[in-house]
TrEMBL record:
Name of a matching Pfam family: AlaDh_PNT_N
Parts forming coiled coils: none
Catalytic activity as recorded in UniProt: NAD(+) + NADPH + H(+)(in) = NADH + NADP(+) + H(+)(out)
UniProt organism field: Rhizobium paranaense
GO MF term list: NADP binding; oxidoreductase activity; proton-translocating NAD(P)+ transhydrogenase activity
Domain Alanine dehydrogenase/pyridine nucleotide transhydrogenase N-terminal: 6-139
Protein name: proton-translocating NAD(P)(+) transhydrogenase
PANTHER family named among the record's database cross-references: NAD(P) TRANSHYDROGENASE (PTHR10160), PROTON-TRANSLOCATING NAD(P)(+) TRANSHYDROGENASE (PTHR10160:SF19)
Keywords: NAD, NADP, Nucleotide-binding, Oxidoreductase, Translocase
Function recorded in the entry: The transhydrogenation between NADH and NADP is coupled to respiration and ATP hydrolysis and functions as a proton pump across the membrane.
Top-tier EC class: translocase
Length: 387
């Protein structure tokens, strides 16, 4: 295999991130790669073409992808982009494969060896390659910033000669990576924070950040986590009790942030219109699962909607709203994965198809769809990543 890497400019509307940073271009050059960056690829992430050139990358056009051995992207390539890639090229991106079997078939027919970064296994070795975590961390932070911008009051308690401004009450639903960062950010801004999650282990994590944990903590709850750390499906009786508790709690909140998003599944409905109607005037809700249908009834995709008097924020790709930071982390995830494909002595590409990281993330290879989740689209399974 050759050693030419092409960093593509994203073509998807509103995608602001780029797949290579100054730091990762230096790293790739050190690994023995020649780098071509498509003109303007880093502009929205505050990386001008000249900065790439200054560290040895060449600025090119989309046509340079035809000679590339490795193509780095943020989003899955379109049909038009695929047509410009050479057979045998390695393509690494966030592929969004669930429900997009036709796009995977197109990549297979083009002879591409493609990898989905969001399928990276959650093992110790792969932590530095975990794009779900790196991007969800920023999404959780940005959710609080977006809520604060729309909320028409201050978040922290302020005691002044003119009177006291009470702290805003923020409720975070889901204590995964995004939820924990949302809790931490809201706490830093001085809000009074509470959170809920169906996993018992989340209680300690929430408390460690100074937030109040809200859940029906009965015997079923205490046994609600699998050996792998995932939530078990709860009984209808428990779900009803938990829903009643959450509804009562939401009625007292100023800001609600929902984070329940699992790749490949429709987002679970967590907040109904009736719950929103019970919230305080001027309340705000942020839905991090809008790309999968949303956790909040009435959420609008890509907009701020007025639902029962609550301003519901439904921006997709929240990490992309802070692209300089998101690109830096995503690019580091990519280059760390790419490095596992390089022979350190010869500085040449060589895929070890027996490597657990390769097997977990490879979608297409040698003209076929090879990932077991997508070989038979009638019986897909779901990767248990979380936001």
């Amino acid at each position: 295999m050759g050693n030419l890497v092409f960093v593509a400019k994203e073509t998807v509307a509103d995608e602001t991130r780029v797949a290579a940073s100054i730091e990762t271009v230096k790293k790739m050059r050190g690994l023995g790669f020649d780098i071509v960056v498509e003109a303007g690829a880093g502009a929205l992430s505050r990386i001008p073409d000249g900065e790439y050139e200054a560290i040895g990358a060449r600025i090119g056009s989309v046509h340079d992808a035809a000679q590339a051995d490795v193509i780095l992207k943020v989003r899955r390539p379109t049909g038009g982009e695929i047509a410009g890639y050479k057979s045998g090229a390695i393509v690494i991106a966030i592929m969004d494969p669930y429900g997009n079997e036709a796009a995977l078939a197109d990549m297979a027919r083009a002879g591409l060896t493609s990898f989905a970064m969001e399928l990276m296994p959650r093992i110790t070795r792969a932590q530095s390659m975990d794009v779900l975590s790196s991007q969800a961390n920023l999404a959780g932070y940005q959710a609080v910033i977006e809520a604060a911008a729309v909320y028409d009051r201050a978040l922290p308690m302020m005691m002044t000669a003119a009177g006291t401004v009470p702290a805003a009450k923020v409720f975070v639903m889901g204590a995964g990576v995004a939820g924990l960062q949302a809790i931490a950010t809201a706490r830093r801004l001085g809000a009074q924070v509470s959170a809920t999650d169906v996993r018992p282990a989340a209680k300690e994590q929430v408390a460690s950040l100074g937030a109040k944990f809200v859940a029906v903590e009965d015997e079923e709850f205490k046994a609600a986590e699998t050996a792998g750390g995932y939530a078990k499906e709860m009984s209808k009786d428990y779900q009803a009790k938990q829903a009643a508790l959450v509804a009562e709690h939401i009625s007292k909140q100023d800001i609600v942030i929902t984070t329940a998003l699992i790749p490949g599944r429709p987002a679970p409905r967590l907040v109904s219109r009736e719950m929103l109607k019970a919230m305080r005037p001027g309340a705000v809700a942020v839905d991090l699962a809008v790309e999968r249908g949303g956790n909040i009834e009435g959420v609008g995709f890509g907009t701020v909607s007025d639902v029962e008097g609550v301003k519901v924020i439904g921006y997709p790709n929240l990490a992309g709203r802070i692209p300089a930071s998101a690109s830096a982390l995503y690019a580091k995830n990519l280059v760390t994965f790419l490095e596992t494909m390089v022979d350190k002595n010869s500085k040449s590409l060589g895929l070890n198809r027996a490597d657990e990281l390769i097997k977990a993330t490879m979608l297409t290879d040698a003209g076929e769809v090879v990932h077991p989740n997508f070989v038979d689209p009638d019986q897909p399974t779901v990767n248990k990543g979380d936001l």
